[in-house]
């Protein structure tokens, strides 16, 4: 009997099943690449220094969407006004919601006496910055994995292996953060210009106080109030991010005598970034 060499599997491995995925923000790119490896190409809409609250896609980015197999949303503000136009660029592009299964918490807003009566927790006041929490990143990772095995079933084993490895690295990051914050008092407060660290604060029993007032720079009277609050509440550090003005933060920090630290919730190295934030909070509350 003649031996038949089956070349089928070899041929299959030569057919590169590149998937092209568009995402809204840089951390999503990091998560998708962690699972997708070299099988997935990622197009990011919001570029470094831009804010996902006010961002508008460039014409060249809209054109590039024609080559995307899928768009992974995460629920940032610009998606609300742009998703219909994004979908219109490419009717065969599949949509996946990476925030599926994540419960959004109310955003930390600065409460002023006159506003407290009509405070309500509608969709507008829920925190969209879901990706700064290892607990949420694990849910996002599951959604990415499930999307990739739909988009590219041939490489399911490859994605599964990388997904499992990614879950381990998320757990390792979480463990490291808990060790760093082991001596930080429960409920320790840190001040931020834009309240983008709410889920991080939730995960690690911390509290963030926002400087901005309804997305705007605080007025001098509000700054004076924040300075008093920072002193009373024993705030140890103020964090700012490159997407926003740091003038008010610097003024408050100077008056209170605490450091201003710059850290972006949109950094690509999500793990190092969260660890850096934890170290800064632990240091400042020593
Ligand atoms: Zn934001």
What descriptors fit this protein?
286 residues, alpha/beta, Rossmann fold, 2 domains, 10 helices, 8 strands, binds zinc ion
Short description:
By secondary structure, this protein is of the alpha/beta class.
Question: If you had to describe this structure to a student in words, what would you say it looks like?
Answer:
This protein has 286 residues and is α/β, with parallel strands linked by helices. The chain has two domains: 15-103 and 128-176, Nitrogenase molybdenum iron protein domain (Rossmann fold), CATH 3.40.50; 182-284, Rossmann fold. 43% of the residues lie in helices and 12% in strands. It is built from ten helices and eight strands. The strands form two sheets. A four-stranded parallel β-sheet has the order 2-1-3-4, with helices on one face. Strand 7 (238-240), helix 9 (247-256) and strand 8 (260-262) form a beta-alpha-beta unit. Helix 2 (26-36) crosses helix 5, helix 2 crosses helix 6 (156-180) and helix 6 runs parallel beside helix 10 (270-284). The chain is globular and about 60 Å long. The N and C termini lie far apart (78 Å). Mean pLDDT is 88; it is low at 1-15 and 113-123. It binds zinc ion.
Proportion of residues in β-strands: 5-15%
Corresponding CATH superfamily of the largest domain: Nitrogenase molybdenum iron protein domain
Overall mean pLDDT = 88
Q: Based on the structure given, which CATH architecture of the largest domain is correct?
A: 3-Layer(aba) Sandwich
List low-confidence stretches.
Answer: 1-15, 113-123
Cα radius of gyration in angstroms? 22 Å
* H/I helix tally: 10
| Ligands bound to this protein structure | zinc ion
Alpha-beta classification: alpha/beta
CATH topology of the largest domain: Rossmann fold
Share in helix:
40-55%
Shape: globular
